[in-house]
Amino acid sequence: MIYSLRGKILIKEINFVVIECGGVGYGCRTSYNTVSKLGSVGTETTLYTHLSIREDNAELFGFATYQELNCFRLLISVSGVGAKVATSILSDVTPENFAFMVASGDSKALTRTKGVGAKTAQRIVLELKDKISADSFGTVSASSFADTPSVAETSSVSEAIEALMVLGYSQGEVAPLVRNCNPSMSTQEIITEVLRMMMGGK
Question: How far apart are CA 194 and CA 164, in angstroms?
Answer without folding.
Answer: 9
